Amino acid sequence: MNTDARYVAWLLDFLSTQGVDTQSLAQTHRLTDLEQLNTPISRATHRALLSDALRITGNSGLGLELGFHRSLATYDQLAYLLMSSSTLREATENGLRYQNYPGRFSGREIITTFSEIDGQGCYQVSVKEGLDAFRLLAVEDVLSSIMTTVRWVLGRPLPVTKLRCDYPMPPHFAAYKAIFNCPVQFDAPVIQLFFDATVLDQPLPHASPQSARLYAALCEEKSIARQQGDVAWRLCQLIIHDPANPPSMTDAADILHCSPAP
Prior knowledge:
This protein is an alpha+beta fold. It has helices at 5-17, 22-28, 43-57, 62-68, 77-84, 88-97, 135-154, 174-180, 209-227, 231-241, 249-255; strands spanning 3-4, 40-41, 110-117, 120-127, 160-164, 184-185, 191-196.
């Protein structure tokens, strides 16, 4: 999946604050058209840029920092959709529906779902094959992005109660305390971020039903274009909407305007 110049321009700006010679980096990867914010940046270029960033900075926790310091502008209309939602529950539904919108790894190699377990909200992160050396960076980016995004939407930090990670404790473990401020279990069977579910239905400070409808339509258009009509992706969105009650094949075919196999 491609990302776009909007995110890559922000990424280079962020790396410059880490002492990286981003002008040289941009020249190496022929990133000459970043003023055109919607210009697609290939998956190969994105990964090569991240690989160089990891090598140059020597920062094993780069993914955490990228997610935590992510600029609101890099989410474009999706950011305004989330902030215009009436509650965090609605914002979560919108965010998961259009999680492919920001490009990068989200919505393709990494799928985030939501559920409620014993009075707690739970964002669960599932990782597909193919990330290889970028797995930790991508997962940490998504986890810390959740924290940043919810802070924009709620106007305050997400009240996290527990984080479970399916990988060993990383060398930059101290950064988890500053970002998540909760008990962390490593080498767990799944990746789950738990929080106090009482915040889910509290009114959001920037709620606007009219704006939400407008931005939802724009996000739908861009998400479909990004996936080029990928039926597998569209079916995934139906399942994410209510993982406990996925549609039958006949219902899914009706929604997707397809004919089920006889």
